[in-house]
Amino acid sequence: MTTPPSFPALAGQGWSVHKRPTFSTRVASHVSGREVRSPLYAYTLYEFELGFDGLSSGSSYPGIGNASLQSLMGLYLQCEGQYGTFLYTDPTDNAVVNQGIGTGDGATTSFMFQRALGGFLEPVSWVSSVANVYLNGVAQTSGWSLVQPNMLNFSAAPASGIVITVDFSYAFVCRFLDDQEDFENFMSGLWKVDALKFRSVKP
Q1: Per residue in 165-202, pLDDT tens?
Q2: Domain shared by 183 and 149, yes or no
Q3: pTM, entire model
Q4: Are 148 and 192 contacting, i.e. CB atoms less than 8 angstroms apart?
Q5: What are phi and psi of 141, to 5 degrees?
Q6: Is the sign of the CA dihedral 94, 100, 106, 112 positive or negative?
Q7: Could you list the residue range(s) of the whole structural domain that residue 196 is in?
């Protein structure tokens, strides 16, 4: 699988940052006042909104990154607006330690990477790297492989009852929400973006 381009980490990013978990629910109301509700998403989608107070179009402002404008605008152009996808590493939500992803049954060799957020467990979009794989708490140095975007494959199925835990890093597969974006040149060599919006997509 081809790895999507990565969203750049830029020093000129400002505050605040918005992250909106989104579900879709069909609600049918009855004359009695009762409701029937049906969830359409098995797992949430996330919408992000970032602002960039300073983007440099050259090398005059190294503190915010030389050619940081080209880095961000280049990604947007590469994705062709809403069309293409990219990897966004959320600074507050990108790695887990000793995360349970399944229990062996003696036959299954593939397990999906998941991460817990409070009491909510969901698959991750894209696994960036795997630090350790454990079977009943014992680190496994071989016998497993990462299959993009988010599967762990074993060469031999873990025995029944064996708990599989993993230390790994991940990113969100996203697309931009608009086919037009406003990059403002507010002084010589300096640009800004007030609100850059994108959302996660199903892997």
Answers
A1: 999 999 999 999 999 999 999 999 999 999 999 999 98
A2: no
A3: 0.91
A4: no
A5: -85, -10
A6: negative
A7: 18-89+174-200
